[in-house]
Amino acid sequence: MKAEYINAFIEATLETFQSMCNLSFKRTGSIKRVGGEIVEVDDLMAICGLSGDIRGAVMLTTPLQTGMKLVSAFLMEEITIVNCDLMDGWGEIVNIIAGAADAKISDLRIDLSLPSILLGKSARFYAKAGNPFVIVPMYIPDVGPFSLGVSMEIKKK
């Protein structure tokens, strides 16, 4: 996976959080490449499938309290309980990020699936060996941590 593709998703995340939530983040820790293993994720996860010239997905994962703060900023309405607004808002954020990254990657046709949102403690997912995820840990001051994950495999023609 080319670094420019990962950077497109990082830039799209930054732009989305700045314009839609009025928040800025910083990267924390090391970028991890995970494949052929089961990976633990935080309490709240949204994943959007990518197809077209590629096979892959983009995901956002965060502790529940951080997710509530992010969605509250996005909706401009305080979210204090787990409800449909939280789940829909988190899915919409990952959808906006995926769409913005798609616009930045002009050399590939990328189609987006509807996001799936998962909630629960000790959630895990399998990162396929042949199509690993690049996980980018991030932090928003006064809000909390989250991670962006991107998996892209260019289809052979």
Supply database-style keywords.
157 residues, alpha+beta, Chemotaxis protein chec, eight-stranded antiparallel β-sheet, two-stranded antiparallel sheet, 3 helices, 33% helix, 36% strand, globular
Write up what this structure looks like.
Helix content is 33%, strand content 36%. With 157 residues, it is of the alpha+beta class. It has one domain (3-154): Chemotaxis protein chec. Strands 1, 2, 4, 5, 6, 7, 9 and 10 form an 8-stranded antiparallel beta sheet that branches. The chain has a two-stranded antiparallel sheet with strand order 3-8. A hairpin with a 3-residue loop joins strand 9 and strand 10. It is globular, with a radius of gyration of 15 Å.
Biggest pleated sheet: 8 strands, antiparallel
Uncertain ranges:
none
Counting DSSP E segments of at least 2 residues, the number of strands comes to 10
Query: Please, what is the average pLDDT?
Result: 91
Number of domains: 1
Helicity, in percent?
Answer: 25-40%
What CATH calls the topology is Chemotaxis protein chec
